[in-house]
Amino acid sequence: MPRISRTILHHLFATANYARLRGKNRFQLSAKQKMENSQSAFRKLPDLRQPDMIIALAGWSDAAQVATGTVLYLARTLDATKFAQIEGDQFYDFSTTRPEVTIDRGVINSLQLPHNSLFYWKNRKADRDLVFFHGIEPHFHWQKFVDTILDSASNLQVRRIYALGGLYDNVPHTMEPRISGVVNKTDLLAVLKKHNIEPINYRGPSSLHGFLLSSCAQRNMEAISLWGHAPFYVRVETNPMVCLGLVRKLTELMEIEIDLTELIKAGEYLQDMLNRLLADSEELQLYIKKLEEQYEIEGIGPREPSPGADRIIREVEDFLRNQRQKGETE
Fold first, then answer.
1. If you count DSSP H runs as helices and E runs as strands, how many of each does the chain have, helices first?
2. pLDDT (tens digit, 9 = 90+) per residue, 169-188?
3. 11-26 pLDDT, tens per residue?
4. Where are the domains of the chain?
5. Is 3.40.50.10900 the CATH classification of the domain at 8-329?
């Protein structure tokens, strides 16, 4: 899968700040700081005001890193503070999600197991703070994992939970990124309507989002799942154009302001790359035109790519890979 830019996106998603946010710099905890449920560890429970919690999990429901990219951008830009970690030894198959090891000159220095991190941000302009949950969709014990998240949310007196997702869809990159939503209470449909978020129609396999929203309903907690629809033919590691659409929708929902400069630049870079290919490929032009015509008339929901999609995907991937290789040799 091609990366987009050695400069813009590397700076955006691989800085030292993001390494901190991803939990690479582990903190030491004393026995007294361990929670009763050993899979969680808290530094200190922050004192927050009517916080909302934003959740993003890498894995099946994170196409083009739309969900995790959005949370990482928000957390980094707002300079969120890490305060808790959920260890993953009982939730993950390590033969699938491998631990990370650091070896320096033949000496093993560290072993980092898959884990999940929580951060908080205090809003100085309003009495609505934020909690960010960044992690990995578990392989085992889904209900226990969800209960751990929601117990933390209850302890923090979280007002509403936003669970983010990304999916590949039959949509064009030339149009505004499509953002759809799912709620766990009918009265929350008014929130979607107010912010021009279309309710999704879907029936099929579920991600952890289904467990999460159902469990929230059982606990009488408000929960909204927001999904960014990424063009199926743009198989990049991170799609900043869709991340930008999701960030804008979240800041609108929570009435906060955030610097979007880096994300806009990254999106423009990807847009420019795709437009170069579009100008030289008559087949892609016809395909995109068909997607644009369908964009406004079809209902919301994941749609299968049209015939010939595999060829389009290969063409775009090859082009982006070649552009990257050219950049590396310049």
1. 10, 11
2. 988 999 999 999 999 999 99
3. 454 443 444 444 433 3
4. 8-329
5. yes
